[in-house]
């Protein structure tokens, strides 16, 4: 289908600034299909490239200097002067990495050997003694996992054939890590927009103290992607403002005026002028400022030095390990401002002005002049990328390492006393071994478990769930891990639904249908196919001059002018000045024109430019706090649209999209208002959403289901089978290319990893085995290979694991010939192994004893590829093997299938071909689908696919199944109906069919066509559970739970209630008693005790005859409480009741039973 919309491409023809996001885009008009590009993992790779090329060096330089005194009185300062990340290489026997050319290690080897693909992190350390530079040395701090296809990966730049030769997929995109042989992805995480003050109204603010109100302005400050800090400004009932700063997860509240005075050497009049400048007619605010200044005067804070001294004296205890004992209180105050207040800015004057802006915004919020904002809105969100999260962790770990080194040096200095001399050798000794150090072990643990261990919190809202295994069930599942964006584990427990809502601001950025149903619904979303994420900082050298040229007034210039009609201008968290309201629209248009001009680099093409206008009716209509916002920071989501004025592609962000008018069709454009147009009608769908045929004809939940089921489909997950070590993978033996493909299908190269089979589907209620979503499969189709599949498992046998010295090797026992074991002591490829078959033999070199291991899987499996991935050296043999098992999983009753429209069902019967209905031409369906599946689900797209599939088969063509091609005037039914008519079929896709049982013609015509069907990985062979007898719980004697343990199925309260409602009391007794924990117990009817009856020997005398003493040595049950055995009876009770009685007795609670003969019981 052709779309009548002009589109433009996404590749720049001129080279980009090295500081930009590292993606290449074009502004030349090209064919529409090139707009369906989806950069699967480019932003993950770009963020790691930033970490490797710039981030680690900037992080090292930013780590605070360690300052301490030695026992001899010398003042020592120790700091990093830089850091660099190396390349992955094998470690030599000495533990050092060798030269990169000789000993490169590739990801394929790490997967197979169960290793971590990582590179050394080297740092430079400078030591100053008494202020004089004394030593400079380099040390390896640890090893950092390397992302595949990043600038530090050896696969970077390889061609398709070279990638295949290295054991990778030809289409490898990278974006994940290899940790202990497993592929791990750090998912995108939603975070508050960085360096932007968000106005909040929260009840929790009021609970912070006596005078606190619900009003606040919060800003998440990020410095160069490696440091994060939260700062919140609170409004108090007294009219004063206090600032909450965070240091190592502790909150400290400081009056605003203390901080302002400590930042700049201004007098009170200048500070007051700057605070009231944007609100000249607000006398209340002016009085508040005057009151806060007066309080400062009362506290003796009259100038900058006094303010710094007060802050330093109060915070010296909290910052004790960060400042030297010889430093003054004002130095401590300066460190506090640098480390906790607006850390994204390095200049104190800029920090002063951003705090002024936050105070102005806060008072506007208090007085109801602007609308409160919410962090749940995508407009105020960004994405925490994998490279940026790792950089935050690395920077914190580098600081920890320096602290540990300091303590070691102090300890050594105390121990050696006068003989100690601080040299680079002593420093390197303190750094110790890097292999199991803070960084190596910490990052490996973080990626392996997804759990974050941190002292500072890193301004993130969660401590777990960061990383997931990049499962390769199929290509869709694999890709979705990189496109998923998660709100965080913390929000899963919240009862409010606000965080789950799909807001209008998310249009074009978050896919509306690609989210799971159930607990994570709305929290785990997926970005749309066209979304990019900025990963690098942009160059802003020419921006200030451009803003001044366009009429933006700096703070010094605006002091001489009236500010009544001015908008504040914010640039990446800097309050740069004001712009007159009359000029603001012109400035915004000019900035946008420069942004889309390829030849003008003054405004980065990834920037957001948003003009928030003041409310035309402030009393009734609230808007955001007005101003001109320009954002070029990393971690923002951007997407391409067409700029109609410049006829070029422009990247827009979530913040500015709210203030733009964007049309889809050209005739929707509003003259003078609409300046942008969507590049493609499908811009709102994700990678998986773009692969649904005719999604605009389906009920919305069905598209949601298909996005999930597409990721559970058996297909072709990989091609490099001989280099994989995945525990379990699924393979469809005979996949096909669908006859109906959306535009994105070929663009995403989905035929490289096909997911299903074209099937002839008849919509008919024929056998009675197709009720409730069940479906009947033609047995003949099954025998020809329809939906045949294989489960491929790789078993890792590592004889060296957990041992320092390897003493076991694979070797066949020459004295015992075993047909199932090869000459090398390993399984024979191609042979079928059953449970209990011997399959490999191990020789202990210490004892000379051979040990044979037996096949432990219940299902028979064919041995595939057997690989030796490690040998124990020259004198040792093979000690680490990977054994591939192929388990046949052809369709059986109970296996799950689904179309591409969320119509899932299980195979209920393999119906003989001779009994299947057939058409006039002799065609028999592969699948019988029940017609009751359509009315309530409303999957009209599947009906259209059936018609179009039949037409495509008859005309020998692939047809387009993209959304928004057809409409009410040009319907899909008419289009494909005409094609069917041309092929000699019924216009509506119906056919006359005949019964396969008696050959009679069916009175009703049957809807018969071709639908692309997927076989899902949910198979009955993995799920069926049956038990007669088996293991029981040792305490309660009830059957254990769990399929693997041979346990039972829980018969719960609801099942019990159903049995009671049916009156099936004997069935209930059988399930809950006879088949569970039936037990025989002795009870004393005299005292009603279960616990006091014990089996013991008894001696008794006959009182009638005093001369006869009868000794009875037999054992019998006797009640120890009553001392008698005449009323001991055996009763049937559940074992758990006896356990309960014993537990209650332990708490001094006695259970007394009333025992009667059944004939005496009255109801």
Automatic annotation (TrEMBL):
Keywords: DNA-directed RNA polymerase, Metal-binding, Nucleotidyltransferase, Nucleus, Transcription, Transferase, Zinc, Zinc-finger. GO terms for cellular component: DNA-directed RNA polymerase complex; nucleus. It catalyses: RNA(n) + a ribonucleoside 5'-triphosphate = RNA(n+1) + diphosphate. SUPFAM superfamilies: beta and beta-prime subunits of DNA dependent RNA-polymerase (SSF64484). InterPro entries: DNA-dir_RNA_pol_su2, DNA-dir_RNAP_su2_dom, DNA-dir_RNAP_su2_hyb_sf, RNA_pol_bsu_CS, RNA_pol_bsu_protrusion, RNA_pol_Rpb2_2, RNA_pol_Rpb2_2_sf, RNA_pol_Rpb2_3. Belongs to the RNA polymerase beta chain family. DNA-dependent RNA polymerase catalyzes the transcription of DNA into RNA using the four ribonucleoside triphosphates as substrates. This is DNA-directed RNA polymerase subunit beta. It comes from Ascaris suum. The lineage of its organism: Eukaryota, Metazoa, Ecdysozoa, Nematoda, Chromadorea.
């Amino acid at each position: 289908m052709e779309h009548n919309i002009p589109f433009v491409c996404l590749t720049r023809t001129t080279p980009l600034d090295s500081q930009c996001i590292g993606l290449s885009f074009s502004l030349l008009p090209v064919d529409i299909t090139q707009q369906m590009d989806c950069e699967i993992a480019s932003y993950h790779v770009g963020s790691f490239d930033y970490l490797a090329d710039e981030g680690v060096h900037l992080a090292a330089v930013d780590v605070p200097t360690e300052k301490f005194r030695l026992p001899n009185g010398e003042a020592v300062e120790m700091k990093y002067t830089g850091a660099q990340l190396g390349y992955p290489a094998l470690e030599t026997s000495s533990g050092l990495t060798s030269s990169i050319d000789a000993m490169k290690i590739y990801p394929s080897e790490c997967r197979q050997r169960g290793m971590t693909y990582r590179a050394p992190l080297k740092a430079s350390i400078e030591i100053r003694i008494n202020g004089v530079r004394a030593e400079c040395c380099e040390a390896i701090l640890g090893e950092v996992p390397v992302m595949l296809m990043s600038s530090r990966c050896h696969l970077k730049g390889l061609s398709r054939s070279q990638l295949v030769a290295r054991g990778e997929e030809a289409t490898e995109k990278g974006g994940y890590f290899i940790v202990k042989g497993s592929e791990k992805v750090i998912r995108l995480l939603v975070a508050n927009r960085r360096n932007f003050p968000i106005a909040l109204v929260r009840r929790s603010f009021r609970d912070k103290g006596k005078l606190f109100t619900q009003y606040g302005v919060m800003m998440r400050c990020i410095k160069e992607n490696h440091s994060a800090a939260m700062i919140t400004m609170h409004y108090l009932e007294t009219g004063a403002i206090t600032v909450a700063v965070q240091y190592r997860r502790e909150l400290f509240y400081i009056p605003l005026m203390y901080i302002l005075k400590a930042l700049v050497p201004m007098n009170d009049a200048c500070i007051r002028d700057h605070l009231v400048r944007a609100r000249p007619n607000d006398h209340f605010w002016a009085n508040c400022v005057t009151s806060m200044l007066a309080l400062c005067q009362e506290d003796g804070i009259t100038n900058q030095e006094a303010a710094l001294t007060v802050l330093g004296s109060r915070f010296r205890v909290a910052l004790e390990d960060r400042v030297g004992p010889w430093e003054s209180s004002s130095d401590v105050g300066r460190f506090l401002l640098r480390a906790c207040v607006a850390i994204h800015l390095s200049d104190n004057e800029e920090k002063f002005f951003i705090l002024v802006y936050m105070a102005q915004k806060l008072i506007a919020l208090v007085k109801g002049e602007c609308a409160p904002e919410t962090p749940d809105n995508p407009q105020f969100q960004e994405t925490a990328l994998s490279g940026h999260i790792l950089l935050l962790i690395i920077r914190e770990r580098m600081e920890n390492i320096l602290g540990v080194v300091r303590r070691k040096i102090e300890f050594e200095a105390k121990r050696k006393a006068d003989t100690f001399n601080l040299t680079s050798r002593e420093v390197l000794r303190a750094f110790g071994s890097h292999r199991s150090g803070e960084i190596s072990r910490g990052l490996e643990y973080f990626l392996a478990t997804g759990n974050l261990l941190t002292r500072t919190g890193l301004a993130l809202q969660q401590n777990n769930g960061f990383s997931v295994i990049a499962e390769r069930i199929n290509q869709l599942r694999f890709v979705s891990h990189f496109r998923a964006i998660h709100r965080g584990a913390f929000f899963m427990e919240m009862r409010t639904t606000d965080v789950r809502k799909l807001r209008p601001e998310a249009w074009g950025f978050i896919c509306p249908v690609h989210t799971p149903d159930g607990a994570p619904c709305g929290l785990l979303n997926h970005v749309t196919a066209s979304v990019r994420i900025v990963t690098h900082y942009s160059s802003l050298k020419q921006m200030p001059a451009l803003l001044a040229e366009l009429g933006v007034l700096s703070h010094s210039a605006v002091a001489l002018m009236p500010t009544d009609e001015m908008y504040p201008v914010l640039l990446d968290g800097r309050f740069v000045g004001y712009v007159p309201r009359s000029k603001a629209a012109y400035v915004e248009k000019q900035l946008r024109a420069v942004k889309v001009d390829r030849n003008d680099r003054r405004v980065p093409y990834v920037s957001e430019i948003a003009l928030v206008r003041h409310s035309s009716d402030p009393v009734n209509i609230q808007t955001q706090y007005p101003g001109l916002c320009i954002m070029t920071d990393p971690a923002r989501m951007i997407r391409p649209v067409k700029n109609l004025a410049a006829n070029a592609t422009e990247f827009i962000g979530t913040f500015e999209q709210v203030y733009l008018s964007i049309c889809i069709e050209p005739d929707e454009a509003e003259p003078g208002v609409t300046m942008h147009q969507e590049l493609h009608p499908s811009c709102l769908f994700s990678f998986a959403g773009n692969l649904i045929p005719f999604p605009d004809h389906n009920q919305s939940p069905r598209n949601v289901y298909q996005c999930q089921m597409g990721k559970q489909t058996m297909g072709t997950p990989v091609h490099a089978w001989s280099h994989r070590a995945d525990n379990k993978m699924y393979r469809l033996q005979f996949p096909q290319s669908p006859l109906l493909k959306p535009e994105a299908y070929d663009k995403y190269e989905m035929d490289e990893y096909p997911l299903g089979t074209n099937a002839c589907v008849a919509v008919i209620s024929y056998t009675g085995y197709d009720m409730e979503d069940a479906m009947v499969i033609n047995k003949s189709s099954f025998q020809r290979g329809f939906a045949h599949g294989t489960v491929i498992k790789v078993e890792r046998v590592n004889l060296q694991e957990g041992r320092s010295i390897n003493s076991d090797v694979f070797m066949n026992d020459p004295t015992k010939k075993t047909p199932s074991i090869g000459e090398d002591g390993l399984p024979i490829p191609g042979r079928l192994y059953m449970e209990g078959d011997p399959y490999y033999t191990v020789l202990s070199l210490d004892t000379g004893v051979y040990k044979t291991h037996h096949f432990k899987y219940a299902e028979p499996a064919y041995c595939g590829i057997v690989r030796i991935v490690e040998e124990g050296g020259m004198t040792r043999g093979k000690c680490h093997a990977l054994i591939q098992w192929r388990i046949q999983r052809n369709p059986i009753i109970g296996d799950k299938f689904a179309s591409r429209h969320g119509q899932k069902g299980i195979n209920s019967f393999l119906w003989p071909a001779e009994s299947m209905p057939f058409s006039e031409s002799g065609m028999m369906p592969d699948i019988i689908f029940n017609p009751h599946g359509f009315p309530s689900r409303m999957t009209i797209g599947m009906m259209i696919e059936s018609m179009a599939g039949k037409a495509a088969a008859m005309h020998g063509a692939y047809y387009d199944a993209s959304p928004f091609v057809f409409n009410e005037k040009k319907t899909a039914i008419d289009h494909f109906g005409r094609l069917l008519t041309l092929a000699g079929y019924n216009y509506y896709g119906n056919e006359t069919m005949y019964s396969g049982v008696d050959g009679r013609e069916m009175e009703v015509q049957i809807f018969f066509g071709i639908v692309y069907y997927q076989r899902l990985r949910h198979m009955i062979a993995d799920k069926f559970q049956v038990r007669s007898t088996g293991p029981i719980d040792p305490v309660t004697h009830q059957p254990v739970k769990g399929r693997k343990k041979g346990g039972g199925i829980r018969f719960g309260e609801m099942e019990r209630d159903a049995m009671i409602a049916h009156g099936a009391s004997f069935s209930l007794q059988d399930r809950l008693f006879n088949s569970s924990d039936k037990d025989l117990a002795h009870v004393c009817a005299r005292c009603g005790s279960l616990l006091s009856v014990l089996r013991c020997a008894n001696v008794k005398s006959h009182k009638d005859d005093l001369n006869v003493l009868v000794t009875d040595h037999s054992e019998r049950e006797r009640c120890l409480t009553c001392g008698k055995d005449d009323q001991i009876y055996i009763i049937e009770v559940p074992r758990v009741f006896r356990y309960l009685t014993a537990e209650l007795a332990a708490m001094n609670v006695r259970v007394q039973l009333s025992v009667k003969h059944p004939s005496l019981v009255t109801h």
